[in-house]
Amino acid sequence: MPKLVDHERRRAELLAATWRVVRARGVEGTTTRAIADEAGCSLSVLAHFLGGKDDILVAAQTAVYQRIVTRAFGLGGDLSGLAALRAALDAVLPLDEERTADAHVNVAFAGAALSSPRLAAARRDSHREIRELLRVCLREAREGGELRPGVEDEDVIDDFIIFVEGSTLLSLVDGWAEEGRGERLSRLATAFVGQLAAPGPPAPPVA
Asked: Is the dihedral of CA 168, 170, 174, 178 positive or negative?
């Protein structure tokens, strides 16, 4: 009998192999042969599931972004408003091995998108999805009276993306990648969300 193949599972395995090659070689050094070798398959199998090199890179970038988005906005449980925003930051910043690996791939693709219109377009699509999810968090925060007066949602969303991508790049590349990274990033994330919050009620007078 012919061997049955779970198409989605096999595709996910090939994308994971692509991420490993990108982490090791960068996007420019990633070849279909290297991906096939990493995945333990033939070039024809790789092409069957993911297409040519450009198709593979676009699919891999989109998939790692979706993985990050799912972790950020799909694991918050009952959280909403500013609590959901804070949880999203914890989920996307490189605070452990898994999140660091995803961030490494994301940074590599960000650089490659500068010279690849297809990667740049796919990245913009992913950003649009993130922006909509962030709008939901901010709408919930506003409806719950959590936001300070004068907060502009689109400005906050811009700042969120700049903070995540900028601090991720610095933490991975520019000298504070290991020692104290988690503490520093957590402190910055807390400050980012804290500056959006409405002031609390005044403390009661001391008797």
From this structure: negative
Structure confidence at residue 79 (pLDDT): 86
50, 15 contact by CB (below 8 A): yes
Q: Which residues contact 35 (CB under 8 A, 6 or more apart)?
A: 14, 17, 18, 21, 46, 56
- List Cα–Cα distances, 140 to 65, 83, 136, 171, in angstroms: 24, 10, 6, 31
Mean pLDDT of 175-203: 78
Residue 197, beta-bridge partner list? 147
Rounded to an integer, what distance in angstroms lies between the CA atom of residue 42 and that of residue 14? Answer: 11
Q: How many helices (H) and strands (E) are present in the chain, helices listed first?
A: 9, 0
| Dihedral sign, Cα of residue 127, residue 71, residue 57, residue 106 | positive
CB 81 within 8 A of CB 146: yes
What CATH number labels 54-194?
1.10.357.10
Contact 62, 127 (CB under 8 A): no
Q: Name the residue ranges covered by the structural domains of the chain.
A: 54-194
H-helix or E-strand containing 36? Answer: helix 32-39
DSSP code for 96: S
Residue 82 near residue 178 (C-beta atoms within 8 A): no
- Distance, CA of 57 to CA of 62 (rounded, Å): 9
Buried b (16+ CB within 10 A) or exposed e, 39-53: bebeeeebeebbeee
Residue 2's pLDDT is 45
Identify the helix (H) or strand (E) that includes residue 55. helix 53-74
